[in-house]
Each structure stands twice: as C-alpha cells, then as structure tokens.
Amino acid sequence: MTLSFITSSLAGGMLLLGLLMVSRMRLRSLVGLFQIQSLLLASIAAALAYTLVEAHFAVLAILILGVKAIFIPHLLLRVASREVVAERLAAYARPTLLTFLAVGVTLFAFTAVRSIPIPAGAYFATAVSFALVLLGLLLLVSRKDMWGQGIGFLVMENGIFTFGLSLTHGMPLLIELGVLFDLLTLFILMVALVRRAQAEHASVETDYLRELTD
Amino acid sequence: MPSVLLIVSGLAALAPLAARSMRTLGATMALGATAIFALALWVAVPPLLGAPAAAEGLWYVDALAALMVALIGFVQWTAILSSVSYLKTEVEEGVIEFSQARRYASLAGLFILSMLATVVADNLGLMWVALEATTLATTLLVAFYAHKGSLEAAWKYLILCSTGISLGLLGLLITYYAALSGAGVEGFSAISWSALFAVAPSLSPTLMHIAFAFVLIGYGTKAGFVPMHNWLPDAHSRAPAPISGLLSGVLLNAALFSILRYKQLVDASSGGGDWTNGLLLVFGVLSCVIPVGFILLQSDYKRFLAYSSIEHMGLIAFSIGLGAWGALAGLIHLVGHSLAKSMLFFGAGEILLRFRSTKFERVRGAIRAMPYTGSLFLVGLLALLATPPSPLFTSEYLLVARGVGGHPYLTAVVLAALAVIFAGFIRLMMPLLFSPQDTEGGNVETGERFGLTQAAMLLHVLLMLAFGFALWSGYAYPVLERAAILIS
Fold this sequence. Notes:
Largest sheet of chain A: none
Strand content of chain B: under 5%
Oligomer: heterodimer
Number of helices of chain B: 20
Radius of gyration of chain A: 17 Å
Largest sheet of chain B: 2 strands, antiparallel
C-alpha cells in the first residue's frame, strides 16, 4: 500500500464521482456527490500527512474536510431549502449526452497527460486532476442555473487541489490557506448573488441573465 | 517598504467603515488615497531611477513592478477623489444610501490593497491570492446598483474571472512542479519569483510552456483577452464610474503584469522569447480585431469604453509580443491607456449623473451642458485616439515601426482595426459632445462647477501631457527602458 497506490485509488474515486455528477439534475444529489468527492480529497491530504509525517498536511486535510466537505455543502443546501429553489436543475443537453461528453473529456485528459514530462507513478492522479478540471468546466457551461454553475466551479477547484496534492505534495501551507480562504469568500459571494437572483427573478436560471448582449 | 504601503492600504480600506457622515467619509477616503499615493511613489521611484531591485521576504520591486505601483498609486488617488464627489452627489440625490457609500469606500480600499499586493508580490502564490482577491472585492462593486443588468454582470464577472484565475493556479502548480523536479528547490523558494528566475535555465521548457499556456488563458481572462472577454463589457459598464476607471485603468494591467512575470520565467527557461511572443501576438491581434464590430454598433457609452479597453489591452499584448523594443512601446501604451481610459470613465460618470442615462441617444451637447467635463472628456478622447502629444501616439508609432519589420500582415490587420475604431469613436462620441440638444429632452441643466472629478481629470491630462513631452524630449526613455528590458 504505497502512497502512490492510495493517492491513485482516491483520485479514481473522485473521477468516478465527477463523471456521475455531470448527469445529476437534482441539487441534493449534486451536492451529495460533491461532498463525497471533497471527502476523498481530504483523505488524500490525510494519507500524505500519515506517510510523510508532516503536520502541515494534517492541517490541510482538516481544512479541506471542514470547508469543502462540510461547510460549503451545508450552506448550499440550507440556502437552497430556504429560498424554495426548484429541486430539478436544468441543463443545455440531456444527461445521456452530457455523460458521453464527460467520458470524451476524460479520455482527452488521459491522452493529453502523456505529453507532460512527469514520473510514471504520477500519471493516473495527474490525469484524473486534469479530467476533473475539464469535468468542472463541462458542468459550468452545460448548466442553466447558478447552482449548477457554482458547483461546476467547485469541482474544478477539487481537480486543481488534486493536482497540487498528488504531483507536488502541496504548496507551502500559507499559500494553501490563502487559496482556501479565497475559495470560501468566493463561495459566500456566490451565495449572496444567488439569493439576490432569487429575490429579483424568483428563479436562479441564467436565462434571465441574458440582457447584456450586443 | 512595500509592507508599509500595504498596511496603510489596509487601514485606508477599514477606516471608512467608522465614518458617520458624508463629510467624514469623504475626508477619510481622500486622506487614505493621498497617503497611499505618497507611499506608492516612495516605493516606486528608486527602482525606476536605477536603484537595484528591492527583494525583501515576500516582496520584490524591480523597475517593472515599480512602474505598476506608481501607476496604481496615481490612478487610485484620482479615482478615490472622483468617487468622493460622485458618491456625494448620489447620496444627495437619493440614488444610494449613506451605508452603501461607506461600503463602496471600504470595498474600493480592499480592491486597491489587493492590486498593490499583486504587483509587489515576490511569492507567486501570494500574487495569485491577491489577484483573486481583486475579483472578490470588485464583484460587490459591480453589483453595486440594484439595476437589472448588475446581477448578470456580477455573476458573469465572478464566475468567468474566478474560473480563469483557477486555471492560473494550475499554471502555478505546474511551475512549482517544474521547480521541484528540475531545480530541486523546495517550499517557499519554489514559488518565489526571484528564486525561480535565478534557477530558470534548469526548469524544463516543456513544463514551463504548458504552465504558461494555462497562465495566459487563465490570467488572460482577467486581462480581457479575446475570446475570454465576455465579462468585461458588462462588468465595466455596470460598476460605478470611478470603479470602472480603476477596473479598466489598472486592474487589467495588474493581470497583464502577472502574465509578464511568468513570461520572464518561461523565456529564461527556454532561452528566448519567441514562443511566448507568438502567443501574445495571437491573443493581441484577436483582441484588437474582435471588438471592432461591437464598438461600431454600441448604444451605451460606458460599454463602448469597456470594449475600447479590450482593444487597447490587445494592442499592448501585440506590442510586447513583437519583442525587443516592442516591449517599450507596450509599456508606454500601458501607462498612456491607463491615464486616458480612467479619466474618460470619470467623465462618463459625470455625464451619467447629469443626463441620467448611459445611452448615446439620450446624451447630446455634453460640452455645452458641462463645459469643464465636456472639454476634458474631449481631450481624453483625443489622447486615447493617439493624437500627439499623447503618449499613445508614441507607442502606436513604435508599434508600427517594429511590427512592419517583423510581422507586416499582422500589423496591417491591427492598423486597419485601429482605423475603423477611430471612425467609430468619432461617429459616436462627437454627437454626444457637440450636437445641439433637442428641445424635447432639453430639460438638462447647463453649467457646472469645477469639482473634484474635474480636478482629477485635469490631473490626468496634465500628466499625459508631461509624459508625452518627456517621451518627445527623450527623458522618459532611460526610466522606461529599465522596465522594458525585463520583458523583452
């Protein structure tokens, strides 16, 4: 059970969840899958903490757990239930097509990683992180509502964190803290804007946000 | 030294929250902005005059960073002064509440703090955090008014820019990995720009190229390059006018600065600037050409100015991509554009307050209704359109001189785009300034006092004239070359 094996397994789990998320049309299932994905990410950090015996990864694992796996999903669901958001989210294409695109995007990520000069042991985790970034982008562009777009962004961030943890074993803690703090603030801003959208349009569909075009 | 600057900026961001009346708020804002300007000059002048780059801990101020600091310091000073009178008018007319004005001041202060932190940061991670912080601080400013389009603009801005900056984070991580694997540096040194630059030749060129691609697309979103520019017209037109001036004038530069820092690393690792220059040329030409149609068909003058910003960032990128003294042209253009565009936005704010509309068709005869603002606005427009002695004339002249030799077809395309945009400016802006007001909509009051905003605009004009003459007489070149040599 080497570190590389653990990291790859956890990353594989994250990828699987990411592929599932693309076709989920209910807010609760999206958030639930995101929660588990963030939990796996925190586990990668925990595995690093255990194997490399460095406190900084333990701190990171706890922060990822607290912020991405607990606080953000909790706040998302609370705001959603309070604002009486429609449970069914909308997308620009049917779930089947989206899953097909997701698989295509993942294959692309896996082939693209071959041209990057990295050690062979890190191929899988790096490919997964690129795939997650692309899956997050796919979510972002395919969703018609602000929740879905926001979660797409968060999945992208998960992918980037996976890349950071698996390949470079994290950055100096101070910077990781800054990144997480920015993420948190961004999320709070997102929620603020979503609530305003709900108040103004009684809906969070971005079809209403199409006036400023030329 | 930069730490003092940043601490004072932080205080200037918090102080407005304690204000209890518009007068104290205005005084606090003005005091804070003046202090920041003074400290910015104190930080920026020595490296520009030849002192070696100051590297202390988290900060690194070389000639390029010093130029940015000086520019941010000046534009934030005039922008805050303009904001004081802008907010005062809006609160008096009941458009916004006092608490909102206070929030504006504090958010603007945070915005300025994060911009300054971006350009003086040695640590690339800190630079990332600061750049993302600028997005976060300005989102609420973009959504400041309860207008119909503000929410849309703020959402697009938040999501698009944050997505872009996340891709920049990926680029940063790849750079970090390149440092770990290629040069064997660890921890903080692996994301310290000065440390990386010292070991740059040992970084893998392939990895650095991939990192730069991510950084260019990511931070380029923030800098307004086409095709990632969709957020810019909305955000810059919906924000309050002085903030738009800051957004167009200095924030785009800060994002470009971050790209240039990576360019320096990549060029040092590959042994030449050809690859990065090629990419900058492509994005530059795209950003010059695509806005042309949008500018000609605009009906909203703030949106018009925003598209013009995209155009000019494209010109700057194109100039830098030309290499050698194209970088000098790019820096001159950067400074000139910041000065001209921000004062145009201040003027647009005044026009908006008077005419109560951002549409071209509703604004006529601005120069008669508002003589000071109108004439200063006209001077600003001429400066932006590169009329001598505007610095933009020198930069575009140098651009053509350099471009015709290396990339004649691309330069021809860029020139054609510039010509069409010139026509668009004249066609749309001249009626705004000079057409007689029709009697129906003629209940706009005429005459104005020379207030803070007009003073701010005048300062910009004077500085542009001074810069223009410094270029003509040759005094400016030694100073600028210290910065340009770093990115050519």
